[in-house]
Amino acid sequence: MSFMKLKAISILLTVINFINNNKKSGQWWQSLHRTMLRRALGKTFRLIGYTIQYGCIAHCAFEYVGGVVMCSGPSMEPTIENSAVVFAENLSRHFYSIQRGDIIIAKSPSNPKSNICKRVIGLEGDKILTSSPSDFFKSHSYVPVGHVWIEGDNLQNSTDSRSYGPIPYGLIRGRIFFKIWPLSDFGFLRDSPNSHRFSDD
């Protein structure tokens, strides 16, 4: 066998070995790539699962337990000042245990995108004085079934049921019972300054 033939065979064997080595290397890299991809996808799906679980827990907590709320506007002064931070619980509305005198957060009947903070003056079946106490001829309104009558503690600066009538119970979002801010007023809420409005016989 001539030298040239041996040289050609040697080169051919080198090429074959190179191809085989690259093929094995490619398989190893593909296997590593698939393993890393599976791990990354596994971590991503676990993270998504945890996020959904915690999101559901947070939603249930805010929907059924309660949360922190900032009240804006002067309608509940002096009980709740403008920009006061309060804690509202949502269990009372779910168990239909809202009472006269409770301060509630509700969806505005005139603007469902905003919330209002008012005090419950009357429950279904209650007779509410709608005229001024000094009027000789007094007018009244009865709260229909499934509704509540709400008013602000600051009667001179509040848009409430005296303007838009009783609101459906379903608009109630929660009951405020504790003030967080300002710290000088930290604690439970004071009684209504308009307790004479709760009922009229």
Automatic annotation (TrEMBL):
Keywords linked to the UniProt accession: Hydrolase, Membrane, Mitochondrion, Mitochondrion inner membrane, Protease, Signal
GO CC annotation, single: mitochondrial inner membrane peptidase complex
Pfam families: Peptidase_S26
Molecular-function annotations in GO: serine-type endopeptidase activity
Top-level taxon of the source organism: Eukaryota
Keyword Nucleus: no
Any GO BP: protein processing involved in protein targeting to mitochondrion
Name of protein: Mitochondrial inner membrane protease subunit
Organism of provenance: Rousettus aegyptiacus (Egyptian fruit bat)
Lineage: Eukaryota, Metazoa, Chordata, Craniata, Vertebrata
